[in-house]
Amino acid sequence: MSRADEVVKKLKESFHDAVVKVEKFRGEVSVTVDKNKIREIMFFLRDSSELLYGMLTDLCGVDYLGDAARFEIVYLLYSLKFNDRLRIKARIREDEAIDTVSDIWKAADWMEREVYDMFGVKFSNHPDLRRILMMDEFVGYPLRKDFPTEGYGFAEPLSVQLEEELDA
Q: In the chain, what are the domains?
């Protein structure tokens, strides 16, 4: 049995009701899980002595415009001890939030803020969920598939804002 098969087996044993789908492609495993169990699963993957996925290498969002569960949050995990990678995915609707993992892996703090800034996905209980790349005045979320290519602009034209700052 390969390492990937062992990891999936352990996940299914511990969270049989939360494992939605398992995909294998080019030696990499992706496990789609129930968004409501994301914290429990992440703690298990990090703390289980047989898994030890102690590093979150990336966290990103994907927009599936037109699907009921429009957004997919993708977590890329790495086990230093076992030199092994694992991709965890969770789907959410546009009006839903997903729990933060920023207290599990500190690296998730800014990554979740980036997903919020670019897609508008909210992370429940995040310690500082605010824009990280775009200005506060920016309207919309630029990586959404329905975001216009010319953009929405700013709540107030930037030139007016600059003039007001200079006059003050």
A: 3-134 (3.30.460.80)
